[in-house]
Design a protein that fits this description.
Layout (H helix, E strand, L loop, with lengths): L12 E10 L1 H5 L1 H15 L6 E7 L2 E9 H12 L4 E11 L11 E4 L5 H7 L12 H18 L1
The structure holds flavin mononucleotide.
The site of flavin mononucleotide has 16 residues, from helix 2, strand 3 and helix 3.
Length: about 150
């Protein structure tokens, strides 16, 4: 687990939340794809003071990025061009006082039967669509991913 990154004092700290659709090619080996994304993120994010979490569920990616404004915007621009997903949709973005995922350069998880409690909550709606979820529930989901990652790391 990386240490809490220092944040550039000259830039506001922001949190950006988006959803996207994994492409069929990415879904063909989703776990391999997540492992590759995670390896890249864990290599790149520390030098850009970025922290966050990513969850994959039913063909969706949901990711939160935290860090200095310019760094977060720069990474999000790059992520939007990534051909492993499409239809990136910005859910929210704005200044925050503190990081919620300070200990994670990035953590990522595909929801599985191990996440029974989370799944029970999400699957109350037959078709999972993050656009139907309030932002607070999306953040709860991402916190659950970080907690599960902490238990397994
Ligand atoms: C859903 C998703 C999440 C990603 N998250 C990150 C991330 O947190 N950090 C990162 O450096 N790259 C992330 N990437 C990969 C970037 O799009 C890009 O491939 C990577 O940063 C390498 O960029 P470069 O070739 O310009 O160095 C993500 C890609 C996808 C599809």
């Amino acid at each position: 687990m990386p240490s809490d990154p220092q944040t550039d004092p000259d830039q506001p700290l922001v949190r950006l939340l988006y959803t996207s659709r994994a492409t069929p090619e990415c879904l063909a080996d989703l776990q391999g794809g997540i492992d590759a994304l995670l390896a890249t993120a864990q290599r790149h994010n520390p030098e850009h003071q970025i922290t966050g979490a990513l969850v994959a569920h039913k063909g969706w990616f949901i990711q939160v990025l935290e860090g200095p404004e310019d760094e977060v915007h720069g990474l999000f621009r790059k992520i939007c061009l990534d051909e492993r997903h499409c239809s990136a949709n910005l859910v929210s973005e704005g200044p925050v006082e503190t990081r919620d995922f300070a200990h994670w350069s990035m953590c990522a998880r595909q929801l599985s039967s191990l996440d029974a409690r989370i799944l029970a909550e999400l699957d109350r709606n037959a078709a999972f669509d993050p656009a139907d979820l309030p932002e607070s529930q999306i953040m709860e989901l991402l916190h659950a991913v970080a907690a599960a990652s902490a238990r397994t790391s």
